[in-house]
Amino acid sequence: MTATQVQSRRLGSIGSIIGLLALIAAVLPHWVLPVIYPPPPVDKVVVDTGHKIKDRIIARVKGVEYQEPQQEKPVRRTLSDSLSITAISLGLLAIILAVLALIFREERLLAVVSAGLGIGAIAIEVSFFFIGVLILIAILYLIANIINLF
């Protein structure tokens, strides 16, 4: 390459910006949305769950199928779902742009940054899912331990 030739940076730059947006969308629902839309108090959730269980038991005893009342999703849940899908989609797009930047022989640093940001955004989303699964397993193990199943 001569001193007058400049490597293109278009795809790597676009991929890096999209990867950064993906990272922001991955972090936003887990740290910012709970501040804006706080979750309901634990006692309310427990009482609502108790009522649902009671209604299911009554329906089963009567021999009818339980029809759960239609409720709208809270704004917080809708935003969280939308941002999670957006984060994964933008992360994949950033990875695709990084691969295209390497194929078209653009600057490697921007391609690596783009891929890293995309992978990071996807990893954050997947890690929060696995943390939720681990918490659920721990709660089930605790309940099983309390009723002496183990």
List the helices and strands and how they pair.
Layout (H helix, E strand, L loop, with lengths): L9 H22 L1 H4 L5 H21 L12 H29 L4 H39 L4
Describe the structure in your own words.
By secondary structure, the protein is mainly alpha-helical. The chain has one domain. The chain contains 5 helices and no strands. Helix 1 packs antiparallel against helix 4, helix 1 packs parallel to helix 5 and helix 4 runs antiparallel to helix 5.
In short:
It contains 5 helices and no strands.
Number of domains: 1
Q: How much helix is in the residues?
A: over 70%
Distinct helical segment count: 5
Largest sheet: none
Coarse shape: elongated
Query: What's the alpha carbon Rg, rounded to whole Å?
Result: 23 Å
Question: What structural class do the secondary elements suggest?
Answer: mainly alpha
Mean pLDDT level: 86
Q: Strand-and-helix sequence, N→C?
A: HHHHH
Number of strands: 0
pLDDT under 50 segments (min length 5)? none
Head-to-tail CA distance between termini: 69 Å
What percentage of the residues does DSSP assign to strands (E)?
under 5%
Keywords:
single chain; 150 residues; mainly alpha; elongated
